[in-house]
Specification:
CATH class of the domain at 26-67: Mainly Beta
Helix content: 10-25%
Number of helices: 2
Bound molecules: zinc ion
Order of helices and strands: EEEEEEHH
Region (Disordered): 1-25
Binding site for Zn(2+): 35, 39, 59, 62
GO molecular function, one term: zinc ion binding
GO biological process, one term: positive regulation of DNA-templated transcription
Protein name: RNA polymerase-binding protein RbpA
Structural class: alpha+beta
CATH architecture of the domain at 26-67: Single Sheet
Shape: elongated
Number of strands: 6
Length: 116
């Protein structure tokens, strides 16, 4: 059922930033997260919510999931809304053009010996 997977799209009200000075006495804990792109974010969570802080957090800069282990950030899921440049290109073109672009990209990578 629940498993240890990402809690996606968690948005707590208006966000953790603007609520720090509202005078509620709930203790807050600041947790550091890092995404696969090396971005760091530090949301804070109320400790009286009865649930632990989420294992992952959406990076506010690039939308990738961010984890608490800087050395081993979670990999983005395939169905994340984040789109690569190639995805944008393919949206504007038909599949044939997309295939050509993909081949060109692969050829470029092969030329740089990044892929076999
Ligand atoms: Zn990021």
């Amino acid at each position: 059922m629940a498993g240890g997977n990402a809690i996606r799209g968690s948005r707590v009200g208006a966000g953790p930033m603007g609520e720090a000075e509202r005078g509620d006495s709930a203790p807050r804990v600041v947790v550091q997260y890092w995404c696969a792109n090396g971005h760091e974010t530090r949301p804070s969570f109320a400790q009286d919510s009865g649930s632990p802080v989420p294992e992952t957090w959406d990076c506010p800069r690039c939308g990738f999931p961010a984890g608490q282990d800087q050395a081993n950030p979670p990999q983005p899921l395939r169905n994340e809304p984040y789109k690569t440049h190639l995805a944008y290109v393919k949206e504007r073109r038909n599949d044939a053009d997309g295939a050509v672009i993909l081949e060109e990209a692969l050829a470029s990578l092969r030329a740089r010996r990044l892929v076999p």
